[in-house]
Write a structure and sequence with these properties.
313 residues
């Protein structure tokens, strides 16, 4: 690219497939000022091109800054491996200020990513905080914010309103209730698999299911436990319904005295749809975060493992 030529994009977002909705929602916030590349929104445009060459060009030459939504396995899948290589080359050639990493979990980052380019405050500041930090970095790189035209703003607001209307229609329907039930089954099955993997590492965990309610289950450690249950008020709407997660001291069992396994925290999680229209979970205390069933299961199983470890100290 000609040194004097402006990049086609101010930011290009790299992410795992499970984080597509998060990438789209972050891009929505950034687009009020910047030109942003998200692959899932450019599939038609890129159809028929050489995927490897196209992705390499976007992240290596055609963007001002690469934004990585990092969690375990990023850089190991087919496309994120291509993107990681191009982002690394970009950083080496243009300087590491051209990299912004949003840390989504506690997994180890590639050794070539400088610690100073990692942003790990998503739980505290949310997507608005991440967008503001990216804004500041882009301005520091000399990017000129794009002023949204009335037509662009109208188009964006219309799309946001349509997404919200579709989400509400989904939740106020039998389809929404059925989706929540299916996600609970996915959540239990995923936790069972994860617990089996953890046991293979020598840790004493076990998953139990309520024999009378397939949407209630719990995980026991030696000293702590976690229970999950979907509580549905109606059959044709998800209104006043939620997934209740209780973190407890001591192992849990149905009918056991509360004194044996006191609740130390209680989290309510709602079923919703993410920016791609797929069912997702939303914590009451973090309304700007959406989780797939796999992500939610991993999140709370990690919390249980941390509490189990702390109880040993």
């Amino acid at each position: 690219m000609d040194p004097n030529e402006q990049p086609a994009y101010d930011a290009a977002v790299s992410f795992l497939a499970d984080d597509e909705a998060l990438a789209v929602r972050l891009a929505d916030r950034l687009r009020r000022r910047w030109k942003v590349f998200v692959f899932s929104e450019r599939q038609k445009e890129l159809a028929g091109t050489d995927g490897v060459e196209t992705f390499s060009a976007v992240f290596k030459e055609r963007c001002r800054m690469g934004v990585v939504l990092h969690r375990e396995n990023w850089g190991e899948t087919r496309w994120t491996r291509v993107e990681a290589s191009a982002i690394k080359d970009h950083g080496l050639n243009k300087g590491w200020d051209t990299l912004f990493v949003v840390k989504l979990d506690d997994s180890t980052l590639p050794i070539w990513i400088p610690d100073t380019k990692i942003w790990s405050a998503l739980d505290e500041y949310g997507l608005d905080g991440a967008a503001a930090a990216i804004d500041a970095r882009l301005e520091g790189l000399g990017a000129k914010p794009h002023v949204e035209t009335p037509v662009e703003r109208a188009r964006r607001l219309k799309a946001e309103a349509e997404r919200e209307a579709d989400a509400q229609a989904f939740l106020e329907s039998e389809r929404g209730v059925e989706a929540a039930q299916q996600e609970m089954i996915k959540l239990a099955d995923h936790l069972e698999e994860r617990v089996r993997d953890v046991r293979a590492e020598g840790l004493n965990l076990s998953l139990h299911r309520d024999p009378n309610d397939r949407y209630v289950f719990w995980v026991n450690g030696a000293r702590v436990s976690m229970s999950m249950g979907w509580h549905c008020s109606y059959s044709n709407t998800t209104r006043h319904s939620s997934l209740l997660i209780r973190e407890r001291d001591g192992p849990y069992g149905l009918g056991w005295p509360a004194a044996l396994c006191p609740v130390v925290s209680e989290i309510r999680v709602s079923i919703t749809v993410d920016a791609t229209g797929a069912p997702a979970w939303q914590e009451e205390d973090h309304p700007d975060r959406y989780y797939s069933s796999r992500q939610l299961g991993d999140r709370y199983l990690n919390r249980l493992l941390d509490r189990e470890h702390e109880s040993e100290l």
